[in-house]
Amino acid sequence: MKTPSLSILIAAHNCGDYLAGTLESIVASLGESLSRAEIVVINDASTDTTQAIIDDYARRIPQLRPGRTDYRNVGKVRNHAVQQATGDYILMVDGDDQLLPGALHDRLHTLHKHTPDILLSKIIEVRQETPQLQWQPAEPELLARNDAIERFLIHRDYQAHFIGQFFSRQLLQQHAFPEFICYEDTWLFPLLLTRSKKTLFTQSGFYLYRKHEHSLSTVIDEHKIACLIAATQNMDEVLPPQFEHLITCHWLDIANRYHLSLRGTSQGQQVRERIARVSLSRFLLSGKIRVSYKRKMLAVRKRGL
Fold it and tell me: What pTM was estimated for this model as a whole?
């Protein structure tokens, strides 16, 4: 069997209300390129109709490869799915999201033409009904490594999402996700930016990300905050020192959003010490830092945790 150009990986957990629509949208997005792809769907400990939907589509779509795990851990499921992949590139899709028709057919042409390590694009966030959007392809731009890192840190154009982004299988299989219940992508994404020898970006979005009240990062608790802190600490470890002030903005977000949960805890102490190590005058004078973050810095320094 010919090696597929693209492995589409779905970590499915209790997404029975949406999974059929997700799979239909993938097929429509691939179009004539369906035969060049494989769809790996891993059911992780679902208790709803998820498995029945996977079984039904596996009978109808030869390119669909089903699998099951009982990890209850998104980092472990993603690693398992990556190891099952055989395509030149990997695209991750959540089991409740959708793709625009024809987009993957065009994206495969882009990947074949430019052979990047990473191809990034904007994600289209939807909160209720799926909007009626048309795929509008555009040529990607080549990003220098430091430019790619800076855009990520200031949330310009893209964030630490693996969904909706293309990574070479070779690159991704060399660097595993941490076994986190949440924010596993925030931990790994910046590392891959430093390892990529060719990163492309395009404004043309094709991935419809369903943001809802039950999203992992929406319903927060102390374990998820611990994962977020570990992921942010990893930014300090893997990114060049010149980005310290921009990384500090991510620490300020943690301090600002979760100060009530962090107050009086060892985690709070860790966040406070990380922010305090930055020269206040240099941070406030930096032209890279938005005014809103300079205000957050002053507020956090005054309030504490």
Answer: 0.94
Q: Let me know: does 263 contact 254? Beta carbons within 8 Å.
A: no
Strands 98-99 and 118-126: unpaired
What whole-number distance in Å separates Cα of residue 3 and Cα of residue 88? 8
Would you state the pLDDT for residue 164?
Answer: 97
Buried-exposed string 241-251: b where 16+ CB fall within 10 A, e elsewhere: eebbbbbbbbb
Token pair of 12, please?
Answer: 């499915």
57-116: pLDDT as tens digits: 999 999 999 999 999 999 999 999 999 999 999 999 999 999 999 999 999 999 999 999
d(CA 67, CA 51): 9
Q: How far apart are CA 305 and CA 272, in angstroms?
A: 7
Integer Cα distance of 180 and 187 in angstroms: 9
Q: Tokens 């793709």 identify what position?
A: 99
Q: What's the half-sphere exposure (Cβ side, CA atoms, 13 Å) at 304?
A: 4
